[in-house]
Structure formats: structure tokens, C-alpha cells
Task: inverse folding
């Protein structure tokens, strides 16, 4: 790294991650409140429900869960496959294209009436959540998830233990960073819940606010300050 290069790309900065977490909070509240009472940002619950259905002999119901799991798997597959050819284009980073795609998908979801079967929207959210989770991996050198909070909670506990045992200030700083991500998710989720009853299917458009901010940050960086760094991989890749 040259001395004049930024330590962290715009797609690695904590503000970008906080905005992504807020958007994920909106998506989680949206699918739970309006699209079938499920969380589509991760897949543990779907695999648990599929296992329970198979254990009870409800084969057809169990097979349904292959849809969201497959959508999540396909999102991870594509987000791992596409960055290299996109990098060769030399115009924008993959992270930026993904932010644009996710923004467009969230806008489209807002036009889908609540009368449409919930799995349609659930699968769409599964897909974009997977791509986001697999693309944005480290915020300023700290491994982070951007679509759910479980690891953030764990890391706060780890950081607290290290600080109490060794007075590790770096660990405490990491713990505070994870706490900030949870707060962002919480705010997005709470605000989305408040507007679901008012905006109905269009309530998902609340996620467009943080996503638009992310997209503007990334496009500006790609076209100006970081245009010469388009081949540089973000941390964790």
C-alpha cells in the first residue's frame, strides 16, 4: 500500500456498515411484520423449520424451505463469482454495483401487493441479504456481518471479557464497534415497524434511505478518490 492510499476503502468504512445494518433492520422488520412472520436475513430458522417438518413427516411442507435456502445459497454463489469480471471492467467496484442492485430490488419489492404470496418477497429478500452478507465482510479490519446481529452480540461479550481480564483497550473498541452495528439494526427495525401499518407493502422503501446513502458514498469514491484502487480487494476477501 502506498503512503497516499487510504487505509480503508469506502466499502470498508464503519459508516457504510452502519447504514447497511440499518437497511437490514428494515428488511427484517418488513418480512416479519408484513410478509409472513419470518426473518429472511439469515437461514438458521429456515433450516430448523425444514428439519422439524421432515421429522414430523411433513415432507411437502419441509421441501418448501428449500426455496429460501436455495435463494440464499445462489446469492452467495453469485456474489463470489461476479467480483472478478466486474473488476476487469475498470469502472465501478462490485460492492457499488451490488448496492445499486439491492436498492433497485427494494424499490421493486415495494410495488408488490401484500396479496401476492409471501414466499415471492421472502425469496427476493433472501437473495439480496445473502449477497450483502457475503460481499461486505470487514469494517475497518473488524470482521462483521451486515444482515443479522448474532455475531455482534457474541463479539461484545468477548470484548468485555478481554477488557476485564487484560484491560485490552483495542478489544473494548471492537466491542463498541459491534454495539454500534446493533444500534443501527435496532433503529432500522424499530422505525420500519412503526411505518408498516401506515405504508403497507411500500414500508420497505424506508430501507432506500440508508441504501441510497451507501450507493452515493461508493459511487463517489469509485469515480474520484478511489478510482485508481478499483483492483484493490476489500479486507476479508
Result:
Amino acid at each position: 500500500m502506498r503512503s497516499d492510499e487510504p487505509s480503508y476503502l469506502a466499502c470498508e468504512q464503519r459508516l457504510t456498515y452502519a447504514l447497511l445494518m440499518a437497511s437490514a433492520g428494515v428488511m427484517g422488520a418488513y418480512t416479519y411484520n408484513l410478509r409472513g412472520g419470518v426473518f429472511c436475513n439469515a437461514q438458521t430458522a429456515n433450516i430448523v423449520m425444514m428439519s422439524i417438518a421432515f421429522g414430523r413427516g411433513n415432507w411437502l411442507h419441509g421441501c418448501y424451505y428449500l426455496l429460501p435456502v436455495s435463494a440464499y445459497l445462489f446469492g452467495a454463489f453469485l456474489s463470489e463469482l461476479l467480483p472478478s469480471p466486474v473488476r476487469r471492467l475498470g469502472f465501478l467496484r462490485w460492492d457499488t454495483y451490488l448496492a445499486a442492485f439491492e436498492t433497485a430490488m427494494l424499490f421493486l419489492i415495494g410495488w408488490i401487493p401484500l396479496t401476492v404470496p409471501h414466499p415471492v418477497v421472502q425469496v427476493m429478500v433472501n437473495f439480496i441479504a445473502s449477497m450483502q452478507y457475503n460481499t461486505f465482510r470487514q469494517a475497518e479490519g473488524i470482521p462483521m456481518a451486515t444482515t443479522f446481529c448474532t455475531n455482534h452480540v457474541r463479539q461484545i461479550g468477548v470484548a468485555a471479557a478481554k477488557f476485564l481480564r487484560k484491560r485490552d483497550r483495542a478489544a473494548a473498541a471492537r466491542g463498541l464497534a459491534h454495539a454500534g452495528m446493533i444500534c443501527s439494526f435496532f433503529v432500522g427495525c424499530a422505525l420500519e415497524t412503526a411505518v408498516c401499518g401506515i405504508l403497507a407493502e411500500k414500508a420497505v422503501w424506508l430501507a432506500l434511505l440508508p441504501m441510497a446513502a451507501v450507493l452515493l458514498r461508493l459511487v463517489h469514491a469509485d469515480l474520484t478518490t478511489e478510482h485508481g484502487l478499483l483492483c484493490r480487494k476489500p479486507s476479508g476477501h
